[in-house]
Amino acid sequence: MVVKTVELPLAQQEDVVAVRQSTRSLAVEIGLTIVDQTKIVTAASELARNTVVHGGGGKVTLEILRETSKQGLRLTFEDTGPGIPDLERAMQDGYTSASGLGLGLGGSKRLCTDFAIESKVGVGTRVTIARWKV
Amino acid sequence: MERIPILKMGSFLLVTIQVDMHDQLALTLQDDLTARIVADRASGVLIDISALDIVDSFIGRMLGNIAGMARVLDAETVVVGMQPSVAITLVELGLSLPGIRTALNVDRGMELLRSARNGEFGGDGRQDG
């Protein structure tokens, strides 16, 4: 069950900073440990940058989820950019198209408990991550 | 334009990153530091990241670039004050910051730079100082 939703635009670099800050405050709100907070904020930073730089902008939806025995923070990054032609390759460390170290997608996956990516060439990309507090 | 201040102390340059940097700010710092190493004939750069609560791949790359450019300009770089949660996350992300010297705090970082300047460090053969 979604108990809180925050939607933020991702159009420019400064928006990445805002996403980091909102992710941090929601992570604190659900009581994630400092290490888990840092992990999801770092993953959010990587994915938000991807949306701005590679996806040509888009938005992120941050949600606090509540289930019977646990709370979670789920982030969904969506863009209507060029899409990723070879997802398998894009997930590998070292794959980079522009300005990073090529750790964005694979690294973000390692930092989260849930990770899903859908991408269609010419349509856009959606990446969903989550971390749970049991 | 927004900038991160760079302080000069003897032959060293000190930077304390206190704000949540967007990417352009990180790139500006990289350019400013490189220019100042030359202008101030600095032999060392100390970057305090104790106020940073995340280091992502972009900031990691910036730190690596600064260390690499400084080395080419005959200066050593030390990154100090990384929070434990940041270190754990960096390694899991896949970033081990190769080529970047780190120290636990500013004091130890300064010690490292001084010994580098005196040629005691890793045999880089620095003669001046």
Characteristics of this structure?
heterodimer, A: 134 residues, five-stranded antiparallel beta sheet, 4 helices, 5 strands, B: 129 residues, alpha/beta, Transcription Regulator spoIIAA, five-stranded mixed beta sheet, disordered C terminus
How do the strands and helices of this protein lay out in sequence?
The complex is a heterodimer of chains A (134) and B (129).
Chain A: E1 2-10, H1 13-29, H2 34-53, E2 58-67, E3 70-79, H3 87-90, H4 104-111, E4 114-120, E5 124-133
Antiparallel strand pairs in A: 1-2, 2-3, 3-5, 4-5
Chain B: E1 6-9, E2 12-16, H1 23-39, E3 44-48, H2 57-72, E4 76-80, H3 84-93, E5 101-103, H4 106-117
Parallel strand pairs in B: 2-3, 3-4, 4-5
Antiparallel strand pairs in B: 1-2
Kindly describe this structure:
The complex is a heterodimer of chains A (134) and B (129). Chain A has helices spanning 13-29, 34-53, 87-90, 104-111, and strands spanning 2-10, 58-67, 70-79, 114-120, 124-133. With 134 residues, chain A is an alpha+beta fold. In chain A, strands 1-2-3-5-4 form a five-stranded antiparallel beta sheet, covered by helices on one side. The longest helix of chain A has 20 residues, at 34-53. The radius of gyration of chain A is 14 Å and the shape is globular. The model of chain A has no long low-confidence stretch (mean pLDDT 92). Chain B has one domain (6-107): STAS domain (Transcription Regulator spoIIAA). Chain B contains four helices and five strands; from the N terminus they run E-E-H-E-H-E-H-E-H. Chain B has a five-stranded mixed beta sheet with strand order 1-2-3-4-5, sandwiched between helices. The radius of gyration of chain B is 14 Å and the shape is globular. The relative contact order of chain B is 0.16. The model of chain B is unreliable at 123-129 (pLDDT under 50). Chain A binds chain B through residues 13-14, 16-17, 20-21, 24, 34-35, 37-39, 41-42, 45-46, 49, 93, 99-101, 103-104, 106-108, 110-111, and chain B through 20-24, 53-58, 60-61, 83-86, 88-89, 92-95.
